[in-house]
Design brief:
The protein has about 375 residues and is of the alpha/beta class. The chain has helices spanning about 15-30, 40-50, 65-75, 90-100, 110-150, 160-175, 180-195, 210-220, 230-235, 240-250, 250-265, 270-285, 305-320, 330-340, 350-355, 360-365, 370-375; strands at about 10-15, 35, 55-60, 60, 65, 80-85, 105. A hairpin with a 2-residue loop joins β4 and β5.
């Protein structure tokens, strides 16, 4: 259910009185409450009171840069949406604003229609962010209650484990629009790869039915750490900058920390599937050649489950449309990429198992709904 229309509390900080008053008039025409500051110090004081929903701030202020206010207050008030205003038409200024966490950027002179378009875009993003926050809080509460139920019962049966993992996956899906069917396909890709890998002599004693069941449950947790990544990075409809990519890489360790909290709740008797999930979260971006992250592990230092998920995730990411890439790659193109990465990005044995399972993988790629995958499983 969508959120009801909201009257926002808007703060305008601009030391040019005519510009500040014009912006305030625009905001009032949109039906929102507005407070105007004509100097930096008053703006800083009002921002510190945490009363504003949106702050429209001039980049070039009398007592320093509007970027300084953005940098000072955005980290402690993540729900406060900053829209920076400037006469600077260079690329560097809006890029800096976005890197510091601004939700929007307007260039002077400000026409009403352009102002409304940008303001309403930011307002819609704010509404979506708050809805995701509410969903996450609900899911976190449900997860906490279910974990307590686990502790009250024996807590390690397959059905109970599946319930817990489903709750954790729902938490991830609340943030990332791309993870719906992706999570289900990843689980089934991993099953097919693991089943073929089991036929190799060196894995006969490692991969059994229990391992395959665990990896099917744990694989969809690989990106749960993205719940801790800012929306501006996670939902960006374009390629990430190097700084943004550094932020995105943190999802591996955030995911591990989330599952560590679950493990700690079991007082030394955590289900194996959650422990496997920790390994997958932390290490599914490691590379066979040691050039991955977060720890730069190489070869068999990387947990087997994470090596399997790494390839499955890579395949499905390229086989699916993304906000930054509308057309997926075809299977043969991806297969060629995987062959080139054998022994570099990927474990050669996992690559062999992938190609042994190629018919099943190609069939799974065509499936788009959890119901279809459950029928196939």
């Amino acid at each position: 259910m969508g959120r009801l229309p909201t009257v926002l509390k808007v703060l305008v900080v601009d030391d040019t009185r005519e510009v500040a008053d014009l912006i305030a008039a625009y905001v009032r025409r949109l039906g929102h409450d507005v407070d105007v500051c004509y100097n930096t110090q008053v703006g800083r004081e009002k921002l510190s009171r945490r009363h504003a929903d949106v702050a429209l701030v001039d980049v070039n202020l009398d007592e320093g840069s509007g970027f300084a206010l953005l940098d000072e207050f955005k980290p402690s008030q993540p729900e406060l949406q900053f829209i920076m205003i400037s006469g600077d038409q260079s690329v560097e200024s809006p890029v800096k604003a976005m890197r510091l966490g601004a939700a929007g950027y307007m260039i002077k002179p400000l026409g009403y229609e352009a102002f409304v378009a940008e303001f309403e875009r930011v307002q819609k993003e704010r509404d979506a962010m708050l809805e995701r926050r509410d969903t996450m809080r609900r899911l976190e509460n449900e997860l906490q209650m279910q974990t307590q139920d686990f502790l009250a019962e024996v807590g390690t049966s397959f059905n109970l484990q599946r319930t817990l993992i489903t709750s954790l996956c729902n938490l991830a899906r609340a943030r990332d629009k791309d993870t719906g069917e992706h999570l289900y396909r990843i689980a089934h890709y991993c099953r097919e790869i693991a089943m073929k890998l089991r036929s190799l002599p060196e894995y006969g004693d490692i991969i059994d039915d229990a391992f395959i069941n665990r990896i099917m449950l744990a694989a969809p947790l690989h990106d749960i750490g993205k719940t801790g990544i800012p929306d501006a990075v996670l939902l960006k409809p374009a390629s990430l900058t190097s700084d943004e990519f550094d932020i995105m890489k943190r999802h591996t360790l955030i995911g591990k920390e989330i599952l560590e909290q679950v493990v700690n709740g079991f007082d030394g008797n955590a289900p194996e599937v959650v422990l496997m999930g920790m390994d997958i979260c932390a290490h599914h971006h490691e590379r066979w050649d040691g050039k991955g992250y977060p720890e730069g592990l190489s070869g068999e230092e990387i947990p087997l489950a994470a090596r399997i998920v790494a390839l499955a995730d890579y395949y499905d990411a390229l086989a699916s449309a993304r906000v930054y890439r509308k057309q997926p790659y075809d299977h043969n193109a991806i297969a060629g990429m995987i062959r080139k990465e054998s022994g570099l990005r990927f474990d050669p044995n996992v690559v062999k198992a992938f190609f042994d399972a190629e018919p099943q993988v190609m069939s799974l790629r065509l499936l788009q709904s959890p119901e279809q995958l459950q029928v196939m499983g």
